TrEMBL record:
Binding site for Zn(2+) 1: H55, H57, H113, D135
Keyword Zinc in record: yes
Pathway assignment: Secondary metabolite metabolism; methylglyoxal degradation; (R)-lactate from methylglyoxal: step 2/2
Binding site for Zn(2+) 2: D59, H60, D135, H173
Gene name, Swiss-Prot/TrEMBL: gloB
Native source species: Marinospirillum alkalitolerans
Keyword Signal applies: no
Cofactor: Zn(2+)
Protein's name according to its UniProt entry: Hydroxyacylglutathione hydrolase
Cofactor mode of binding and number, as noted: Binds 2 Zn(2+) ions per subunit.
EC numbers: 3.1.2.6
Length: 265
């Protein structure tokens, strides 16, 4: 059996560990800090076989050089972003495929948060999909638009949505409560949001992660995947009117204002 689990890092990052039973090898995603990974490897006697990098921000790559030097592991990241990444053993781009333990991995280009942000879509032996999406999709939210356009982020989020309902997503931050509180302002009549907020508050109170999340759950509660819903549009419209801006006419424009509203809230 496979398992994926989070190593907390910094204030609210997760470094995801991918491993399987009866196999000493493991992989990590976005080790911004080497210390929690070293501690985990020491405690479990596992070997670090490789590192996946979603994007160049320091809280995602800060531990890569130390770990790759100590464990001589594979380091996989964006071919287009190599100038900003630690040395890679494998540079990849949209559509590339490779094997990770017994998982099949497909690379998705998901620009928006950064220009060359990648997501890694992994299919396990049972056909279950696991997507490591970095800072592009969060539970009930999406990443800030640091380098890309709203149109790019919209397309990236659509690409991440094009998977079966049972697909699991592994974002790199525990932002869920803040995102759900904001989503409740966007869709105040949503029972699904109220329910999810209560569940996630209980998880956080017990110091447990609210992640991974599923496609089904995000489709029901993530406002960035619900831009065509009348209540979502009505709420964004109100914010846009307060800003004295013209009303949005495209999905990307709705997303642009929703993200601005979140930044301002
Ligand atoms: Zn980032």
């Amino acid at each position: 059996m496979y398992s994926v689990h989070p190593l907390p890092a910094f204030k609210d990052n997760y470094i995801w560990v991918i491993q399987q039973d009866q196999d000493p090898r493991c992989w990590v995603v976005d080790p911004g800090d080497a210390a929690p990974v070293r501690a985990y490897l020491d405690a479990t006697q596992r070997q670090l076989e490789g590192i996946l990098i979603t994007h160049h921000h320091p809280d995602h790559i800060g531990g890569v050089a130390a770990l790759s030097a100590a464990y001589s592991c594979a380091v996989i990241g964006s071919a287009a972003d190599q100038a900003r990444l630690p040395p890679l053993t494998q540079a990849v781009q949209q559509g590339d495929r490779f094997q990770l333990l017994d998982w099949q991995v497909e690379v998705l280009a998901v620009p928006g948060h950064t220009d060359h942000h990648l997501a890694f879509s992994c299919t396990d032996q049972q056909g279950q999909q696991h997507i490591f999406c970095g800072d592009t999709l969060f539970a009930a939210g999406c990443g800030r638009l640091f380098e890309g356009t709203a149109q790019q982020m919209y397309q990236s989020l659509q690409a991440l949505a094009a998977f079966p309902d049972a697909t699991l997503y592994y974002p790199a931050h525990e932002y869920t409560l803040a995102n759900l509180n904001f989503a409740c302002k966007v869709e105040p009549s949503s029972f699904a949001l109220q329910q999810r907020l209560a569940q996630c508050m209980a998880l956080r109170a017990a110091q447990r992660p609210t992640l991974p999340t599923s496609r089904e759950q995000e489709a029901a509660t993530n406002p960035y995947w619900r831009l065509n819903q009348p209540e979502v549009q009505a709420s964004i419209s109100q914010f846009v009117a307060q800003q004295g801006e013209p009303q949005p006419e495209t999905p990307a424009a709705w997303l642009h204002f929703l993200r601005l509203w979140k930044n301002a809230s």
